[in-house]
Amino acid sequence: MNQVQDFKNLLLQSIKHLQVLKTCLEEEERLLSQRDLEALEACTQRKQAALQQVHTDIDTRRDFLQAQGQEASEAGVQAWLADQDPKLAQALGKGWAQLVKLLSQVHQHNKQNGILVMRAQQQVGVLLNLVKNSQGGTPSSGKVYSAKGASRDVNNGRTLGSA
């Protein structure tokens, strides 16, 4: 195969693997919101496998660019494309742009999932403090929210049993 076909195949494979990762992240977001831990564990395993494929694609693309005398970066891809036939470069450039856009979407989904995980950890922390306080532990200065949205101190002198 020639270099252009090799690069095209790399792009198609990378796009496919990023789409799989994006789907996993979308599923993970849904499962985090639903707090379905069993399904989340299976989803995480699929996400890890997809992430490994993406890393392999990055390594393969890096090796390809370095073999062409280019740096493994956006600038290296653009420089390599500039050396190709203009029609082929345009088509491959569209594929590259699709890959970059998809990568941005994957980053956004991952960021959103991180926020969901952080919120869940904060909620668990508040609940653990409530349990600790109700069992005679050292009170903390955490806050909880009432049904009307007003905040109040966790340490209000009542035990969990009397709340």
Automatic annotation (TrEMBL):
<feature type="region of interest" description="Disordered">
    <location>
        <begin position="137"/>
        <end position="163"/>
    </location>
</feature>
<keyword id="KW-0969">Cilium</keyword>
<protein>
    <submittedName>
        <fullName>Flagellar biosynthesis/type III secretory pathway chaperone</fullName>
    </submittedName>
</protein>
<comment type="function">
    <text>Required for the efficient initiation of filament assembly.</text>
</comment>
<dbReference type="InterPro" id="IPR036679">
    <property type="entry name" value="FlgN-like_sf"/>
</dbReference>
<keyword id="KW-0966">Cell projection</keyword>
<feature type="compositionally biased region" description="Polar residues">
    <location>
        <begin position="153"/>
        <end position="163"/>
    </location>
</feature>
<keyword id="KW-0282">Flagellum</keyword>
<dbReference type="Pfam" id="PF05130">
    <property type="entry name" value="FlgN"/>
</dbReference>
<dbReference type="InterPro" id="IPR007809">
    <property type="entry name" value="FlgN-like"/>
</dbReference>
<comment type="similarity">
    <text>Belongs to the FlgN family.</text>
</comment>
<keyword id="KW-1005">Bacterial flagellum biogenesis</keyword>
<dbReference type="GO" id="GO:0044780">
    <property type="term" value="P:bacterial-type flagellum assembly"/>
</dbReference>
